[in-house]
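Incident review: delayed structure delivery

Summary: a single-chain prediction request sat in the queue longer than the usual turnaround. Root cause was a stuck worker, restarted by the on-call engineer. No data loss occurred. The affected request and its eventual output are reproduced below so the record is complete for anyone auditing the incident later.

Affected input:
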Amino acid sequence: MEEVLLLSRLQFAITIIYHFLFVPLTIGLIILVAIMETKYAKTLNPLYDRMGRFWGKLFAINFVLGIVTGITMEFQFGTNWSEYSKYMGDIFGSPLAIEALVAFFLESTFMGIWLFGKDKLSPKMRAFSIWMVALGTNISAIWIITANGFMQNPVGYVINNGRVELESFTALVTNPYAWHMFFHTIFACYIVGAFFVLGVSAYHLLRKNDVEFFKKSFKYGLVLALIATTLTPFIGHKNGVYVSSVQPAKGAAMEAVWETEEGAPFHILQIPDPANERNAMEALSIPKLGSFFYTNSFDGKIVGLKDIPADERPNVNIVYYSFRIMVVLGLLFIGMSWYGFYLYRKDKLLDSKKYLKFTLYSILLPYVAINLGWVVAEVGRQPWVVYGLMKTTDGVSPIAFSQIAFSLTGLVVFYTLLIIADVYLLIKYSRKGPETAGVETKGGVKHVS
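Output delivered after worker restart:
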C-alpha cells in the first residue's frame, strides 16, 4: 500500500507541475493581449493590431495545449484518489463543476470567436472577446483555488455518515485561505506573462528586428512586471501570516523553526541536520524579523516543530528550501524590473545588451519560482490531504501497484510530448516575429493581409 501511495502522490505531483507549466503563461499573457487589443480598438493604430495578433498567437498555442493537461488531471480523483473523492466529493465537486460549466465554456467560446473570427470582427468586438477570455481564465482560477482552499483550510462543512458535506456555500467561497492564495497566485502568473514578453522582445531587440514593435511590447511587459513584482512580496507576506495562523506546521517548516519562541529571528540561511532536530548551520540572522514575517508582530509567537506531533509535520527540507529559492527569485525579479524601467526611461535599453541577454535567459525563472510556491503550499500541508480532516494515506485508491506504475509511465510520456510541442511552437513563432503590417479595408474593418 505504501508503494501505491508513493506512486499516486508522485503521479499527481507530476501532473500538477506539468499542468502548471501552461497555466501561468495563460493567465499572465492574456491580460497583456487584452490591453493591446483594447489599445487597437481605441486608436486603430496598425502597430497595436500586429501586437495583439502576434502575442495572441503565442497565447493561443499555450492555451490549447494547456487544456489537455487540465482534463486528464481531473480523472485522477476517480482513479488514484477514490477514497478522497468519496469523502470530499460533495464539496470538491461543486467548485470544479462551476469552473467547467461557467469559466471553461466562457473562455473557450470567446477564444474561438477571437481566434477564428478576428478578421471579420470589428476592433471593439475583438477587444471584447479577448477580455471575456481573460475573465474566463480568472474565474477558472478562482474556482480551482476555492476547491484547493478547502483542502488547506476546511470551512462551511459538516461530517455526515463518514463524509464531508457542504453546509455553507457562502463560507466555502469566502474562505480567507482561498482568497489569499488566489491573489498571490494571480500576481505570480502576471510575472510569468510579463517576463515571457520581456524575454521574447529582448531576443528581437538584440537582433534589431522590428525595433518599434518589440520596444513597445517590452514597455507593456515591463509595466506589468513592475506592478506584479512590486506587489507580490506584500501579498505573499499577508498570505504567509494567514497560513501560519491556520497551519502552524507549514509556517514553522518554511523557517525550519524547531523551538517555540517569541520574537524569533529571521535566518537568511540555515541548514537543518538530517535528523531535523536542530540547525547544523545558521548564518546572518536578523533579530525578531522571523516573528514579524509570520505574525505581523516583532514579538509574535511562532510554534516550533517540536511542539507539533512528528506524524503531522511536513518534509521540512523540501518546504524550507523551496520557500527560500522562491523568495530569492522574487527579489531578483524586482531588481530586473526596476533596472529595466530605469534603462527604458533613460533610453538606454537598446544599448544594454547584457541586460537584454539576461532578460532573455531569465524567461524560465518565473516558472521555477511559481512551481516552488506550489511545492511549499502542497508539501507543507502534508501529511493531510484535507487539513485536519483526512490524511493522504487514507485518500488513495485500493488499486494494484502495476496499474499505477503503468498509468504513471504513460502520463509522463504523454505530458512530455505535449511540453515538447508547446516549447517547439512557442520558440518557432517567437523567433518568426509578427506579420508584416499590410492592411486592407473590408467593410470598414481593418485586416492584416
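Verification: Confidence is low (pLDDT under 50) at residues 276-281, 438-449.
Action items: add queue-age alerting; document worker restart procedure.
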